[in-house]
Amino acid sequence: MAIGKNKRLTKGGKKGGKKKIADPFSKKDWYDVKVPTNFTARTIGRTLATRTTGTKIASDALKGRVFEASLGDLIQLDDEDSHRKFKLICEDVQGRHCLTNFHGMDITTDRLRMLVKKWQTLIEAQADIRTSDGYLLRVFCIAFTMKMRGQIRKTSYAQHTQIKAIRKKMVEIMTRDISGSELKEVVSKL
């Protein structure tokens, strides 16, 4: 720095002057998230969206948004089923309400880790099944072998042919239960 100049006291300041600080939340609106009628809860929370300005419409920003809630929160009865997570997708916006529909179901990772144990066989099956009202569901199922009553052997593994037979039976049962029912009935079965 040159002698005799004070850096902080230069005339004019920085280029462009000081920027006006605007709160981003002042341009946003809150919307209630409504769940489908097959759950006892009516709303599961609220979400933010930027207000409609020019060509950007607020409802377009909300449509397609996916919300996740546990089954314990959706049926408001028991926390016993809180390990099941439901994904709900926003399909329509009416006023300040986001109307959602079923988008998927999953199990929490801690519950899945609790189920998997040593000395047993894990069998996974998946199937693409169309419901009676036209929705195509990809269903995953998991099964485990277990010890028989009075079994002395430490392990309870299944042979490859047995695994194939069990997997085939799992796909059969999933197809039978889902293909003859509508999406609402399938969600209530889960």
From TrEMBL:
Superkingdom of origin: Eukaryota
Region described as Disordered: 1-21
Gene Ontology BP, a term: translation
Chain intervals with Basic residues compositional bias: 1-19
Any one GO cellular component localisation term in the record: ribosome
Subcellular compartments: Cytoplasm
Gene Ontology terms, MF aspect: structural constituent of ribosome
Keywords on record: Cytoplasm, Ribonucleoprotein, Ribosomal protein
PANTHER family the record matches: 40S RIBOSOMAL PROTEIN S3A
UniProt record similarity statement: Belongs to the eukaryotic ribosomal protein eS1 family.
HAMAP family in the record: Ribosomal_eS1_euk
Protein's UniProt name: 40S ribosomal protein S3a
